[in-house]
Amino acid sequence: MTRPLRLDPDRLFPAEPRTRDIARALYAEIGALPIVSPHGHTDPRWFATNAHWTNATELLLAPDHYLYRMLYSQGIALADLGVADRNGAPATNPRAAWGLFAANQHLFRGTPSRLWLDHVFAEVFGFEQALDAGTADFYFDAIGEKLASDAFRPRALFERFDIAFLATTEGADDPLGHHAAIRASGWQGRVATTYRPDAVIDVEHEGFATSMARFAELTGEDVYSWRGYLAAHAKRRADFRAAGATATDHGHATARTANLSATESEALFARVTGSDWTAADAELFRAQMLTEMAKLACDDGMVMQIHPGSFRNHNRGLFASHGRDKGADIPTRTDYVSALKPMLDVVGTRTDLSIILFTLDETTYSRELAPLAGHYPCLKLGPAWWFHDSPEGMRRFREQTTETAGFYNTVGFNDDTRAFLSIPARHDVARRVDCAFLARLVAEGQLHENEAHEVAYDLTIGLVRRAYKLDADAAAPVAAAA
Amino acid sequence: MTRPLRLDPDRLFPAEPRTRDIARALYAEIGALPIVSPHGHTDPRWFATNAHWTNATELLLAPDHYLYRMLYSQGIALADLGVADRNGAPATNPRAAWGLFAANQHLFRGTPSRLWLDHVFAEVFGFEQALDAGTADFYFDAIGEKLASDAFRPRALFERFDIAFLATTEGADDPLGHHAAIRASGWQGRVATTYRPDAVIDVEHEGFATSMARFAELTGEDVYSWRGYLAAHAKRRADFRAAGATATDHGHATARTANLSATESEALFARVTGSDWTAADAELFRAQMLTEMAKLACDDGMVMQIHPGSFRNHNRGLFASHGRDKGADIPTRTDYVSALKPMLDVVGTRTDLSIILFTLDETTYSRELAPLAGHYPCLKLGPAWWFHDSPEGMRRFREQTTETAGFYNTVGFNDDTRAFLSIPARHDVARRVDCAFLARLVAEGQLHENEAHEVAYDLTIGLVRRAYKLDADAAAPVAAAA
Amino acid sequence: MTRPLRLDPDRLFPAEPRTRDIARALYAEIGALPIVSPHGHTDPRWFATNAHWTNATELLLAPDHYLYRMLYSQGIALADLGVADRNGAPATNPRAAWGLFAANQHLFRGTPSRLWLDHVFAEVFGFEQALDAGTADFYFDAIGEKLASDAFRPRALFERFDIAFLATTEGADDPLGHHAAIRASGWQGRVATTYRPDAVIDVEHEGFATSMARFAELTGEDVYSWRGYLAAHAKRRADFRAAGATATDHGHATARTANLSATESEALFARVTGSDWTAADAELFRAQMLTEMAKLACDDGMVMQIHPGSFRNHNRGLFASHGRDKGADIPTRTDYVSALKPMLDVVGTRTDLSIILFTLDETTYSRELAPLAGHYPCLKLGPAWWFHDSPEGMRRFREQTTETAGFYNTVGFNDDTRAFLSIPARHDVARRVDCAFLARLVAEGQLHENEAHEVAYDLTIGLVRRAYKLDADAAAPVAAAA
After folding, report:
1. What percent of chain B lies above the pLDDT cut of 70?
2. Closest to B69 (Cβ–Cβ): which among C349, C366, C374?
3. Measured between CB atoms, which of C109, C327, C393 is closest to A406?
4. Is C451 in contact with B106 (Cβ distance < 8 A)?
5. Contacts with B240 (C-beta within 8 Å, 6 or more apart), sequence order
């Protein structure tokens, strides 16, 4: 029952022949462009040490919550998949875990994981038969062999993938040692960091106290005073810029912002860093800090990303046994119109500030986000995110934002992944879906084909460079410069 | 102006020729499979007595709120359609009512009712001209004649429709006499019940007191004590299982659940069964009872269905004159992420429990339901429901749930109908829409055609059998067993 | 790099050839029908004075917030586009403003503005090259010349556009002088008004006091007493009917209604017209006034339109500098099910009342609006509105409302525009999208082609005439009369 593994060269293009031809022509020009990855979660240690990865399970399965949450949803124990719990990695046989994954490939039919896996197996590893129970051992052995070769070490793959820029994400208390090591090594791969200060902003985060202590140590500031705390943020933002960062990132439970006076902010800060605060205080402090971050961004030119709307660690039992980031984060309804107004009252008319908004609540695309980005100079829309980083999700994003925000208030694709080997697959999906969308506009007489080629280039390369300030010459209007 | 009535053999398949060919090939293998109907509202009396139905109006129009609400929305009086009010059936001439319905067929263009009616008229009754003012009498007479024949008695149609399993829905206070009569008759048709205890759980239901009295009588328990009340539920669940039930069903206004201590629950129960309670108490009691039902399901293995989010009897004037279930139930915004958490804190990691979630709020598909079902072992997604049991509704369901939850966290189709003659039509629509969806995945290179055939079978037969525990051997993983 | 400007005769039709052929055939019969525009914001002064428009910038750019908000979102200053601020029109050179607009045409790719502009440039002005930096001056000069000719005066274009009916919108304090002048002129163009009393209902509106004073003056009523206030509304509604109005319009922030007793209403009125009221009072008064308007509509037969859900003047800085209606209105989540119930408790079963509902929250289409309109005799659905008046927006409207509400609980198209020259373009887009939608239903076997032709006519002409009571003989059921 093993099926051949062959990537359809026309995958994700519309079936209708004329539209497909247009999509093919668009893709022919942009499909092989270098990868610009301005937001993700790969481990900078890989590129610093350039050490070999070990085996299929430890590289591809056990760290990937997209994969194991689906298996878990069907009653498969995480321990049997090699997923670490609060006591560390289980004593699971990696080959057995891989076999279990292989035997349940049908669960991924119709999901983006299936597209990414097919691409990784066919393009990165060169398999010609699909993964299933019958080929599991062959896969496990072949992947292990390849990973032991120099061609599959992190830097070699980075170069093979033609990655022009890759951003990782580090906390405000991170010493950025791996990034320093990368630069010191003389390797030319462009790997930058991103400033993600959530753990020193969210007083409800279990690591808040520890992170604050390190934050104090790294900055030498009195981070327990409001003035010192803000100064520490400014210092660390400068450290991060020195490590290549052009952006910050903020993953709050809601998009709420606040516009408190300096006195109110100071009093709130004293409260939440003391011992007597409420959940409402914690939320208000996160809200005020988004506005503070926007003000700092006006000063230092960093791009601000807001990723709100995830109910983290929803599964109480699993959080108790396994901790965070185990595929149990569930999106919630998110408001932007009221939530962002206090911050926009402060910075909304700035033309030198860039705030990129993401959402897990697709209902906001046409109702809130496109109208906001289609008006405010400082707002741009990030691509379809997380659960919506998928062909249908991307299609809905374009269909529901373009008519109000246009293409030029969006910022190209983010892979947002820690699964390094899937990065080319993810960018390829986005490029194909964008070409399919543009092809339909051309086929239905809404856009000229030469305009579509220009837009396809901008969605792939032009907008991301400009939005994340990756090139000095990228400040010019995108299409006008073409 | 009469048009011929001919069902397009390719109806609901995409027009694009290659995709249509794939859809046809998929449908050729599953279109004629037996019907498994695990959730619906047909009257068990029909199969117990096997009595003839009378005429077109009384069988097809007057009891079907999908049809008469549309006519009512255009200013037609319910009395003129033969719809009963609080005083019983009106003295309307059934032929005249049928004529009014026939003359307004244009109102149903583009609705699923039109698809179902066409199927019933063409396939069940063999008409070759469409219903309209000119053919109304011919239809009325011909249907009346057929209904008087043995071939159109309930059991004969059940067999002709090739129904392998049909679940009805009865309240906790139902003596299940019709189901007993069916089994006693020796007839082999498999008709089971479903435990729906809303009227003894919702203290705001106008029939609560009466239902509780019958609940007490049928169980011999002291249902006015918390302990006796829970014991009565356990007893009646056992009675229902003896009448073939594998599932319970819960139709609350919201999806809210609670996780009270035993002491708190007992106090709440005392309050809501006394004379001094608030709407908030009533809601909290319904919430706690969902958790109690989940705990009972862990004990007795019954599958739990939750159908929340309908604002019942929205039209005050119509409720006063006609009572409930008159096409005036309007969906409301529904939250699942916070609402289900208290129950999931108790049973969320169970792999031996199955809770099937439905929604009338399509915004929850991609934002809440697919992520929940794609993580929690005990959660599955019911099909597109009620207003969304339609081609576009089903398409949105697949497009918005598959990428996160896959196919294998869904449970196949429910017809959810009291319109017995439309059951084959409804299943046929679902099968066609699923084939169309799968055909697109194949045509766009996301799925191999042989995988699509396997999925088509599972969506039609495999998943429903497993989800509703209809076969002893259905516990094996679905596709893995293929 | 200038591209030719040629409107694709098949634009907005599906690419699949058989479906496209059906769409073409449908459009061939309805594409050239007269325009009925029952709701919009053109200036009646144009038709009263029939004065020449001046230049491209003052006619097409500076007053159109669809256009300048997009340019503003990319950092272009409104002053550079000729947009007036609180001090009046800036001293911008109109030709320079036009050049800036021309050089940024890429921003409109994929937006409905692009479709409308192409249509205006190609069909109204006869350009054969697209607008861009290179053709900007040529456009500016050519448009200026044409506007100076008699063929481009307002009445000539009205006739050339084949407008059978055009409704403008005036406040309760408007003397309706332009409408009187139009009638007195003997010109046969049918231009009517619409009663929009928001500024005398919304006590939070900055013009409330001024509008009330004029309201008193025009009616001679004591508008500061509850009884006199209601009488003034009745009088002005009669004035508006005499100026051709068949409808009223209500643009509240929410859809909330109330059902207060006469005593409560009177007390509330006294409060909000005094000096001591809260935001909650203001909201309750707006809510009660929707119900009062519905009651008046039962008396005088005017059709009631409700346009809720816009957060007006979201950009604080811009509102301070430029005032209202500057492209900074952002949609918000809107509830209808609870919000409308108090009003529906009063008028919900009336078959002689027509209330047309609009939304900016597309999530309500399938969840709330279609079920409400598919039940209540007095409710109908207005077309896709504002941000959703676009090909994708219209397609979502049909896909998400038709299956529950049918076509016959909708009311045809509204252009809702102040951009007079774009009216034919906007109606053309709607007609094409409707034909495309119907063509798919035919191609997928859900509708016969001759039925689709009948529906296409009704969506273009039949339903709007009936819904807005534009013809004495339009009271008959639409399709049944065909």
Report:
1. 98
2. C374
3. C109
4. yes
5. B170, B176, B193, B194, B195, B248
Report the candidate in A401, A478, A463 with the shortest Cα–Cα distance to residue A431.
Answer: A463
Tens of pLDDT, residues A345-401: 999 999 999 999 999 999 999 999 999 999 999 999 999 999 999 999 999 999 999
Q: Give the model confidence (pLDDT) of C325-357 as tens digits.
A: 999 999 999 999 999 999 999 999 999 999 999
Per DSSP bridges, beta strands C355-357 and A191-192 are unpaired
- Rg of chain B over Cα atoms, rounded to whole angstroms, equals 23
Burial class for B184, CB neighbours closer than 10 Å (0-12, 13-18, 19+): exposed
Average pLDDT per run of 10 along chain C, which is 482 residues long?
90 98 98 98 98 97 96 97 94 97 98 98 98 98 98 98 98 98 97 98 95 98 98 98 97 97 98 96 98 98 98 96 94 97 97 97 98 98 98 98 98 97 98 98 97 98 97 45 36
B385 and B359 in contact (C-beta within 8 Å)? yes
CATH class label, C53-152: mainly alpha
CATH code for the part of the protein at B162-481: 3.20.20.140
How far away is chain B from the Cα of A369, in angstroms, using its nearest Cα? 16
| B1 band by pLDDT with thresholds 50, 70 and 90 | low
The length of chain B, given as a count of residues: 482
Section A129-136 average pLDDT = 98
Give B258-316 pLDDT, tens digit per residue. 999 999 999 999 999 999 999 999 999 999 999 999 999 999 999 999 999 999 999 99
Distance, CA of C389 to CA of C413 (rounded, Å): 9
> The dihedral of CA A458, A464, A466, A472: what is its sign?
negative
Quick: pLDDT tens for C298-324.
999 999 999 999 999 999 999 999 999
What stretch of H or E contains A311?
strand A310-311
Among residues C296, C283, C280, the alpha carbon closest in space to that of C247 is found at C296
A370:C387 CB<8 A: yes
- Compute the mean pLDDT over every residue in chain A, rounded to the nearest whole number: 96
Sign (positive/negative) of CA torsion C112, C117, C122, C128?
negative
C-beta neighbour count of C166 within 10 angstroms = 24
State both tokens at B349.
């990691």
End-to-end CA distance of chain C: give it in Å, rounded.
51
Q: What is the CATH number of domain A225-481?
A: 3.20.20.140
Q: Which CATH architecture has domain C161-481?
A: Alpha-Beta Barrel (3.20)
Neighbours of B342 (CB within 10 A): 18
Domain residues of chain A, as ranges?
52-152, 225-481
Question: CB distance from C440 to chain A under 8 Å?
Answer: no
Looking at residue C2, its pLDDT comes to 78
Indicate the residue of B399, B409, B478 with minimum beta-carbon distance to A73: B409
The domain A52-152: what is its CATH number?
A: 1.10.2020.10
Q: What is the mean pLDDT of chain B?
A: 96
C-alpha torsion angle, residues A68, A70, A72, A73 (rounded to 10):
170
Question: In terms of DSSP bridges, do strands B310-311 and B330-331 run parallel, antiparallel, or are they unpaired?
Answer: antiparallel
Q: Coil, strand or helix: which one is A388?
A: helix
pLDDT computed for residue B471 by the predictor: 76
Look at residues B314, B32, B334, B254 and name the one whose alpha carbon lies nearest to residue B160.
B32
